[in-house]
Amino acid sequence: MLRQSSKGWLGTFLLSTAAVTLIAAGSVSASRSRVATRSQLASLPTLPTIQAGGKVAHARPRRLAHATTSLYEHSVRRRVLRRQGCRAAKHGVSGIVILDFGQPAYNGHTYGTFLFSGRFAGNRAITRALLAYAHGYVHCLRRASHAHLTLSRGTSNFHPQVPSAYNAGHRWARETRKLAWPGA
Predict the structure, then answer these.
(1) What are phi and psi of 115, to 5 degrees?
(2) pLDDT under 70 in the chain at which residues?
(3) Which of 89, 71, 78 lies closest to 137, judged by CA?
(4) Residue 161, C-beta contacts closer than 8 angstroms, at least 6 positions apart
(5) What pLDDT shows up at residue 78?
(6) What angle do CA 74, 79, 84 make, to 5 degrees?
(7) Which of 77, 99, 147, 164 has the largest CB neighbor count within 10 A?
(8) What's the CA angle centered on 152, arms 148 and 156, to 5 degrees?
(9) What is the pLDDT of residues 139-173, one digit of tens each?
(10) Strand 111-114 to strand 120-122: parallel, antiparallel, or no bridges (unpaired)?
(11) Domain boundaries, the chain
């Protein structure tokens, strides 16, 4: 005689709840991105969503995020990053751009990263470089363009060279906030 245990039912329930949560988070994320065209929406599979009363409905996401190329940075020289931003604007790059500044590091008195060139760059220098990229992008953007940019400050988790990962992350986050809200 087959019998279903309560542990099996509970596991199924928890797994279903986690799946619904992930779908809801994805829907919220998709709704905050760029608006998609009808032809783009027609080619997408439908996503299940939960409505009131527990009914499952299939809805297409309203917005899509554009993928762009991530850049592995070898320098934090503002002139170099300004040129990169200008080049991106001239090529019509629109969407999320991640500038990856390499491996987290500490040079004895400040946190930052080891760039892909092997040189150390402090967090403040990285923030100034990101601002230079943004200024270059805006300066070279065509006036009639509807392009937009979400600039992301990137690093890796490959073998961090820091005495405290917590302190490194805290300082990285503080500089990221300064980029998002200049003057903070």
Answers:
(1) -65, 170
(2) 1-66, 181-184
(3) 89
(4) 103, 104, 105, 106, 114
(5) 97
(6) 65
(7) 99
(8) 155
(9) 998 877 788 888 889 998 888 889 999 999 999 99
(10) antiparallel
(11) 6-64, 71-180
